[in-house]
Write a structure and sequence with these properties.
With 397 residues, the protein is mainly alpha-helical. Helix content is 53%, strand content 6%. The chain starts with a helix and ends with a helix.
Length: 397
């Protein structure tokens, strides 16, 4: 009898839990109304936007903390994104839409290879634009996780899109993060950068690849893309190169780097000798080395992950017939726990060597920070985020 009673209570509790969770989430959604009202939107639009949304999206919760471009090493991310199939599809798109891409490139001064790279990475050339409710995704991100401020800003922008009639509430779909269309613009970027390339009076990044690609070119132009230079080059450093010069703190003209003995990994000389550039090591000093221009930073403005920006750049180059990365990618065999990795990034940043966050993943900024710290402290410049470096950081005054 007691066991039956216990099981009955347990079952009742299990059945009640989803209902309580739904009620709590619905109440949370209603708590958003004052902010939405203050931004100038009607109650009718608010109710229509959230109609039928009664619970948080568990897929959003899971994906918010597991973005592959931030969790993978650079080489792992490139393996997943710059695939033979995606390169082949990109070549087909270049043949199919070459005239359109050239016209957009000419107007905005943005390399069509970058547009193809973003299109391919973001939505597989329009085949995977997302099928999730934008309003549910954004509400979930505000309710859970560490993207609350981002999601609140996007929510207001999303209401603006709905108010203008650009999309209807029942057809407002995108990615788990609320990204939209062929090239996955977030709502604020759509409002700031979307373009009507085909002149039909609509900035349709969902149904018009022309509008989507032109919008992307417009955004990259706004983000500082320069027409007179590529995103960068894979390079070879000379023997005896001062490793303390690696990183974005050390911009020099391409001609100056060339005089210092830096050479392209393929070919004899660089284009754009007057362009400013810096040396980047995305996976340590023993891996591939790149000379990076302002245009790479424009790609980072799209998604602040060095792996993502490099994947876009490499995919675009491969579509246009360029080579794969020449140097071998080293394994990241760092003898630190995850907690110690985060600690190292925190301590480096606090010491004035920015790692762009403490996520436990060692990317280009962390390696550059380690090198700069080693140089300041008179340590051997191996650029390796070792326990010795962490212990030195712990002992710093």
């Amino acid at each position: 009898m007691k066991r039956r009673l216990f099981l009955g209570l347990a079952l009742a509790s299990a059945l009640a839990t989803p209902a309580r969770a739904e009620a709590k989430f619905e109440a949370f959604i209603q708590s958003l109304w004052p902010q939405v009202k203050a931004a100038g939107f009607s109650r009718a639009l608010f109710d229509a936007a959230f109609k039928g949304i009664t619970e948080a999206d568990p897929v959003v919760i899971k994906l918010a903390d597991n973005q592959p471009e931030f969790k993978s090493t650079t080489s792992e991310y490139l393996d997943k994104t710059v695939t033979p199939a995606r390169i082949a599809q990109g070549k087909a798109k270049l043949d199919e839409d070459g005239a359109l891409l050239s016209a957009i490139s000419a107007k905005y001064g943005v390399d069509k290879r970058a547009l193809l790279g973003i299109w391919g990475i973001e939505s597989n050339y329009g085949h995977e634009m997302g099928s999730m409710s934008v309003m549910r995704s954004l509400a979930t991100l505000i309710y859970y996780g560490n993207k609350k401020q981002y999601a609140r800003e996007q929510l207001i922008a999303a209401f603006t899109i709905l108010k203008r009639g650009i999309r209807s509430p029942d057809n407002f779909i995108g990615s788990w993060a609320g990204a939209l269309g062929h090239t996955q613009f977030i709502p604020t970027t759509y409002l700031a950068s979307a373009a009507d390339w085909d002149g039909d009076g609509k900035k349709d990044i969902w149904g018009s690849k022309a509008d989507a690609l032109a919008s992307t070119a417009h955004y990259l132009s706004q983000s500082g893309w320069k027409a007179d230079r590529p995103w960068g080059w894979e390079v070879k450093l000379p023997d005896g190169f001062d490793r303390g010069l690696i990183g974005r703190a050390h911009w020099k003209t391409v001609a100056e780097w060339e005089r210092a003995g830096v050479k392209p990994a393929i070919g004899d000389q660089f284009s754009a000798p007057a362009a400013k550039a810096f040396v980047m090591i995305p996976q340590g000093i023993d891996g591939p080395v790149f000379l990076i221009t302002q245009n790479f930073l424009a790609l980072l403005a799209y998604n602040y992950s060095h792996g993502y920006a490099l994947a876009v750049a490499m995919l675009g180059d491969r579509i246009a017939g360029g080579p794969k990365v020449q140097a071998a990618w080293p394994a990241q065999n760092v003898d630190l726990t995850f907690k110690e990795r985060v600690e190292m990034q925190d301590r480096l940043t606090n010491a004035g060597f920015d790692t762009s966050g403490a996520d436990g993943r060692f990317g280009a900024k962390t390696y550059e920070a380690v090198l700069a710290y080693q140089k300041k402290m008179g340590m051997a410049l191996d650029g390796f985020p070792s326990r010795k470096v962490l212990e030195r950081l712990r002992g710093a005054k």
